[in-house]
Amino acid sequence: MTEELFREDATLRECSARVLALADGGVILDRTVFYPLGGGQAGDAGALMLADGRRVAVVDTRKSKEHPGAVLHLLAPGTDASVLLPGTPVTAQIDWARRFRHMRFHTTTHLLCALVPHAVDGCSITADYARLDFHMSEPLDKEALTAGIARLVAEAHPVRHRWISEAELDANPGLVRSMSVQPPRGLGRIRVLEIEGVDLQPCGGTHVCNTAEIGAVVVTKIEKKSAMTRRVVLGLAA
Ligand SMILES: [Zn+2]
User: Fold this and answer.
1) Average pLDDT, whole number, for the chain?
2) How far does the centroid of ligand 1 lie from the alpha carbon of residue 93, in Å?
């Protein structure tokens, strides 16, 4: 079981931790700032720093299938992992520039949910672009959406998360915007992301603290993926 520090504070760039195990080509730590692929958001990359200054690169992060609740820090093929014995202290350090782009794009997908009042049936967030699929047949306007995002960014809305009970969620079914990605059940509580005055929905990803931090994100493309799917692609303005 890995303590997921990024769930409470997405701005943490590093943490001290200990190696619990090596498994599936990766390293399991007792705690981490590395976000594992999930909810459409890409996994983090970065490095594990050893006390003697050695650096072991982490190329991606996944949830462990073998060890439920554990986060797997994937190493490049051929990495000598013999220095990472169980109990070894490390400093886990994410590639912050890359993660901050994930956070900017991810928060923008929430703004899109507010601008496009239709159910979401797919989502992918990377450092270079993001895409969000809406279940709808009407056309969407690229310039109007870009202008809508720019307005919400300029308005500098605070972004925060809180935890609610499953009973509270059941009493508010409208909170679940996504058709394909339902919030995880059975943990007794669900993480809800609120962009003040704009959007509220269950989400476990990482976000900026204020929409002003998003900066210049634009809609680069709108695609008709099927009769009932419109895909909005986001990119960073040049
Ligand atoms: Zn989110």
Assistant:
1) 92
2) 22
Separation of alpha carbons 72 and 152, rounded Å: 35
Confidence of residue 184 (pLDDT cuts 50, 70, 90): low
- Report residues near ion ligand 1: CB below 5 Å: 193, 203, 205
pTM: 0.93
| 87 C-alpha to ligand 1 centroid (Å) | 33
Q: How far is the CA of 227 from the centre of ligand 1 (A)?
A: 26
